[in-house]
Amino acid sequence: MTTHTQRGKSAFITGASKGIGRAVAQALVGEGYSVTITSRHQPEIEGVAAELGAQARGVACDVKDPQAVQAAVDAHVAAFGGLDVLFVNAGVGHFASVADLSIEQWQDVIDTNLSGAFYTVKAAIPALSQRGGYIFTLSSLAGKNPFAGGAAYNASKFGLNGLSEVLMLDLRDRGIKVTQIMPGSVATHFGGHTPGEQDAWKIQPEDLAQLTVDLLRMPARTLPSRVEVRPSRPRKG
User: Fold this and answer.
1) CB burial class (10 A; 0-12, 13-18, 19+) of residue 67?
2) How do residues 155-192 score in pLDDT, each as one tens digit?
3) DSSP class per residue in 112-149
4) Contact between residue 65 and residue 46 where contact means Cβ atoms under 8 Å apart
5) 153 an active-site residue?
6) What positions does the domain Ketoreductase occupy (predicted)?
7) What is the pLDDT of residue 3?
8) How far apart are CA 77 and CA 25, in angstroms?
9) Residue 61, CA distances (Å) to 29, 64, 215 in order
10) What are the C-alpha distances in Å from 230 to residues 126, 138, 142, 198, 210?
């Protein structure tokens, strides 16, 4: 059985200074992967890489900048000799009614969550094609369930879901798997939230990291192309 969890492999993870991206990086290091983790904030991402150990590189990279993304991916390939797993996780959110949402806020969300995902995947395809890689896009149940005040965020995640489905169809003949992960409420720092005991009912970042490892262990012939994840006991009221 051929799986993607093998020693000597490497992963590139965006938005990994905290939360889901950081948890995925930690899990993959535990599986023997070398990882490049990115964030817009250099001291923060370098600190996380130091905590993960010698298998990790921390790189400052804004996914809204396609040249910066390409340079970061190229540096990863040069450092590790290839690329096996891409975890597209970088995301932001601004929440307001359409009347109150600024153009700058709209652009920040769409450019990060959707265009940034495209830039990242585009940069990584040549290296992933060499080794039969795996792409994960971190979407959201907000990509199918609109809510008031979510114009930019909903649009970005609806778009990311569409992009992910096309990537799956475009890239499978290259031997690249694509899975979109769509979680509900996750206990992260997203939107300035500070996780705590009040979030015990939510999906935890390490749960999604475990899911990622489990998907990588699937037989090469099988592709769960979309995975929806919900809290098993959501808070009432």
Assistant:
1) exposed
2) 999 999 999 999 999 999 999 999 999 999 898 777 66
3) IIIIHHHHHHHHHHHHHHHHT-EEEEE--GGGTS--TT
4) no
5) yes
6) 9-203
7) 46
8) 17
9) 20, 9, 27
10) 34, 14, 12, 17, 14
For residue 8, what is the DSSP state? T
Between CA 135 and CA 212 the distance in angstroms is 10
Q: CA-CA distance, 181 to 45, in Å (whole number)?
A: 23
Helix (H, G, I), strand (E, B) or coil at 60: strand
Residue keyed to tokens 């009432």 = 236
How many residues does the structure list for the chain?
A: 237
Catalytic option among 33, 119, 134, 153: 153
Cα(136)–Cα(120) distance, integer angstroms: 11
More confident residue, 186 or 115: 115
Number of C-beta neighbours around residue 236 at 10 A? 5
pLDDT higher than threshold 80 for residue 194: no
pLDDT digits (tens, 9 = 90+) for 77-97: 999 999 999 999 999 999 999
**What sign for the dihedral angle of Cα 33, 38, 42, 43?**
negative
Domains of the chain: 10-229 (3.40.50.720)
Q: Classify strands 10-13 and 226-229 as parallel, antiparallel or unpaired.
A: unpaired
Task: Work out the mean pLDDT of the chain and round it to a whole number.
Answer: 93
| Rounded Cα distance, 139 and 136, in Å | 9
Residue found under tokens 């970088």: 90
Q: What is the DSSP letter of 192?
A: G
